[in-house]
Amino acid sequence: MKDIRIPENTIINPISKEHLFKGNKKNCLLLIHGFTGHPADMEYLGKKIKDKLDLTVYIPRLPGHGTSKEDFRESRAHNWLKKVYDSYLKLKSEYQEVYLAGLSMGGLLAILTAARFRAKKLVLISAALYAKNLLLPLTPVLKYILPVVKQSFSSLSPNYPEENEEEKQHRINYYTYHYTAQIAELYKIMKLARKKLPMVQSDTLVLSSKNDNQVPFKAANKIMKDINSINKKSYIFDNSPHVINNGPEKEKCADIIISFLNK
What we know:
The model is unreliable at 154-159 (pLDDT under 50). By secondary structure, the chain is α/β, with parallel strands linked by helices. The chain has one domain: Rossmann fold. The chain has nine helices and nine strands. The protein has helices at 43-53, 69-74, 77-92, 105-117, 139-145, 165-174, 180-196, 217-226, 250-262, and strands spanning 19-21, 27-32, 56-59, 97-103, 121-125, 148-150, 177-179, 203-209, 232-237. It has a seven-stranded mixed beta sheet, sandwiched between helices. α3 packs across α4 (105-117). α4 links the parallel β4 and β5. The protein is globular and about 50 Å long.
């Protein structure tokens, strides 16, 4: 086998360290960040759920994320999915029920985990079953022609001038360029999640936003139409970006999720 080409000086960015917020209940929540994201993206939501419901919340770091661009370019769809499966199985050995929640690609990984292991509850935040970028379906070919594509400044965080050093390093590694091979891996997960939707029977909450510049409304509609859940609800936000749980309506987002998990 070939070795994994990760530089010896690779470290985990402090904002990318995994979180485990310990509660006292018999159930817990596995909370999954998105493509090129990191655990800190989910920290506010995880803390609030733990404080309000006393649930244990685990936020894993997906392989290749929160370290370096070299590490990221070595990661693939099966690495991301296996990490979530392993996390679910570990939590299931310790807790009675393991609920699932995910943002964007994290939502897709949550769908696949719910389909595989029959989780009781599922929360999907801006789940990326489709993308507004029309070039995404071409990435399985583009990765051989254009492996690296410079990102535009419009794709960067709106808080870019106020970012700290950790956020700056994450931006440099993950938001300066598009790596088409990894986007092609994301596309594999999108297609598989669409295929597996009818196998999901979990109680499901689907959250989407009118201001999402990455995922179109048809993604939420597809979930509500194809998912095989008896109890399923959707909520549309008016003023949130793609990352609803960190936007201007993050408190409302957390409250809706807490109410859903508490029933």
